[in-house]
Specification:
By secondary structure, this protein is an alpha/beta fold. The protein contains eight helices and nine strands.
């Protein structure tokens, strides 16, 4: 049984790597995997603060610079975060960090770590592609928000949290266009692919370890379900 986590880079490295969170996350993951030998976990990690910092520098140096170059900068940040995660789980993650989700069919060990692939979308889309490839029906998307809202709550105080929403309605909120560094609950390109694949996505707060445990165990949790 394969479970897919899309782990927001802002959780792993809000500015620099968060060692305290990664230690708690490692403990939870190891406990959950050891409870059932049939469990396997794919972790796809984003770029976080380092990606945004380097993309901001690029924009300042090259106003109007190409989205493709900005995406490549973000992708490299995801790969550094992914290499850190692979090292944290080295004893149960023997496979190299995956850069191209279309070129892996099996993985040994209990954990597979993946990073950004190519410009045009975020690591959320890589998570969707890996879920399809390994027959997972759900992607758990962990970020710095606890739920999806009807609008950006930082800009609109009237925005309301959502417990569940259809893909059609969710895509009306996030749109269809990917912009490097775009801050949305789930990447628009990934959303289109997830809808077409019939996947369910759970959006939840990444730093809430107890809530993540509840999600992994199939218990009641705080978050939003898109399906």
């Amino acid at each position: 049984m394969v479970t897919v986590l899309s782990l927001g880079g802002s959780i792993v490295a809000p500015d620099a790597p968060d060692a305290a969170f990664l230690s708690s996350f490692s403990t939870l993951v190891r406990e959950w995997l050891s409870a059932d030998n049939s469990r396997k976990l794919i972790i796809v990690v984003g770029g976080g603060g380092p990606a945004r910092s380097y993309q901001k520098a690029f924009s300042a140096i090259c106003p109007g610079g190409s989205h493709e170059q900005a995406d490549w900068i973000g992708i490299m940040a995801t790969r550094l975060n992914a290499q850190l995660l692979k090292a944290v789980f080295a004893d149960i993650c023997p496979t190299d960090v995956v850069y191209d989700p279309t070129k892996i069919d099996v993985f040994t060990g209990r954990i597979l770590v993946a990073a950004g692939w190519k410009p045009g979308f975020s690591t959320d889309n890589d998570a969707v592609l890996l879920a399809e490839r390994f027959s997972a029906d759900t992607v758990i998307n962990l970020s710095n928000i606890a739920k999806v809202y009807t609008d950006d709550p930082r800009a609109n105080p009237e925005a309301k949290p959502i417990d569940s929403i259809s893909w059609a309605d969710f895509r009306k909120i996030v749109g269809d266009e990917w912009i490097p560094g775009k801050n949305v609950p789930f990447d628009p390109v990934a959303s289109m692919h997830a809808q077409n694949a019939g996947l369910r996505v759970i959006c939840a707060a990444g730093r809430d370890i107890d809530n993540l445990r509840a999600i992994l165990d199939g218990k009641d949790f705080i978050g939003s379900v898109i399906s």
